UniProtKB/TrEMBL annotation:
Gene Ontology molecular function, alphabetical: S-methyl-5-thioribose-1-phosphate isomerase activity
Annotated residues for binding of substrate: R49, G50, A51, R86, Q187, N238, K239
The protein's Enzyme Commission number: 5.3.1.23
Residues at the site labelled Transition state stabilizer: C148
Active site location: D228 (proton donor)
Substrates-to-products reaction catalysed: 5-(methylsulfanyl)-alpha-D-ribose 1-phosphate = 5-(methylsulfanyl)-D-ribulose 1-phosphate; 5-deoxy-alpha-D-ribose 1-phosphate = 5-deoxy-D-ribulose 1-phosphate
Protein name: Methylthioribose-1-phosphate isomerase
Metabolic or biological pathway: Amino-acid biosynthesis; L-methionine biosynthesis via salvage pathway; L-methionine from S-methyl-5-thio-alpha-D-ribose 1-phosphate: step 1/6
SUPFAM superfamilies: NagB/RpiA/CoA transferase-like (SSF100950)
Length: 340
């Protein structure tokens, strides 16, 4: 299999490597992955994360195993096991479905490898298209608020919502970004801040609970977020706290955009209520000692509610920025998403 290099995932010299995003930004540690057990742990612990990227990481592992003369039956089981790691981001299911088709072909080893490579390279192109469409929505001097991390760390390319911000800055040179820290795992404060610094894009880090007062003060011009799964009616699941922003944006009449590739679209899910929301370990909310350098601060036995995502209804969304263009409420109401 050819070398494939992305910010946090690479296949080089026949070795699959994953950048440990749980340790970023203060430690850059790459893990080698040779088996399903390791990839499952990397995905479940969000060492590899981001809707598009977890699908690509899983796909590259399957391709690596195929190249190692793994039997068809073991590959089929590996696809099932990886697909079962996280239930909300549909990109993973899309990738695994394509690999199942490849596995049924006569020359399945070549087909699986080619499919994984194609998915990886397609994602790079999808990011460029989304960013180009989305950047046209940004005006000079805009203050953009974003949530979680949707950049190069979460994709094989420049990202989804953060890719829009990257291209908008290339276009205008004078935008500013409010970065939600994104409790509880701080993907915004750790990863988006890290990426914006690398790209030298001015940003201000805020706690999630500060977004409302910034909007009330007229300091937020637009909001761009990513998605883990977009239902056929335009509702979407994204990192928990996204729905808060959509409601606040609606109240303050601020443009609210979701940015995602078509691989995040799930036309078999009719509406947001049908999207399964991943429930995660309470320790992430109570406080994790070690990796973030934080001590446990909540009572050890505190009961915790820790959904990884929430659902935003289509009626709160100004526009859907996909790789195929920008879609309005009217487009969605006439069933544009069902046309894919
Ligand atoms: C382009 S990444 C999309 C999506 O994935 C993230 O979730 P996680 O960090 O749990 O993998 C977040 O919801 C992003 O918006």
């Amino acid at each position: 299999m050819q070398d494939l290099i992305a910010s946090s995932l690479k296949f080089q010299n026949n070795t699959l490597m994953v950048l440990d995003q749980y340790l970023l930004p203060h430690q850059q540690v790459w893990h080698e992955c040779r088996d399903v057990k390791t990839m499952r742990e990397l995905i479940l612990s969000l060492k590899i994360r981001g809707a598009p990227l977890i699908g690509l990481g899983a796909s590259l592992l399957i391709a690596y195993l195929a190249e190692q003369d793994t039997t068809k039956a073991v590959l089929a089981q590996a696809i099932d096991d990886l697909e079962a790691t996280r239930p909300t981001a549909v990109n993973l299911m899309h990738c695994m479905a394509k690999l199942r088709v490849a596995l049924q072909q006569q020359d399945y080893v070549a087909e699986v490898i080619n499919t994984a490579v194609k998915l990886f390279n397609e994602d790079i192109a999808l990011c460029e298209k989304m960013a180009t469409h989305g950047a046209k929505l940004v005006n000079s001097g805009d203050n953009i608020l974003t949530h979680c991390n949707t950049g190069a760390l979460a994709t094989a390319g420049i990202g989804t919502a953060l890719g829009v911000i990257y291209k908008a800055q290339q276009r205008h040179g004078d935008i500013h970004v409010w970065v939600d820290e994104t409790r509880p795992l701080l993907q915004g404060g750790r990863l988006t801040a890290f990426e914006l610094e690398r790209w030298q894009i001015p940003y201000t880090l805020i706690c999630d609970n500060m977004a409302a007062s910034l909007m009330a003060a007229g300091k937020v011009d637009k909001i761009f977020v990513g998605a883990d799964r977009i239902a056929a009616n335009g509702d979407f699941a994204n990192k928990v706290g996204t729905y808060n922003l959509a409601v606040l944006a609606h109240f303050h009449d601020i443009e609210f955009y979701v940015v995602a590739p078509l691989t995040t679209l799930d036309i078999n899910t009719a509406c947001g209520k049908e999207i399964e929301i991943e429930q995660r370990n309470g320790a992430e909310v109570r406080g994790v000692s070690g990796s973030f350098g934080e001590a446990l601060w909540a009572p050890t036995n505190a009961k915790v509610y820790n959904p990884a995502f929430d659902v935003t209804p289509a009626k709160l969304i100004t526009g859907w920025v996909l790789d195929t263009g920008v879609y309005s409420q009217a487009d969605i109401k006439r069933g544009a998403l069902r046309g894919f």
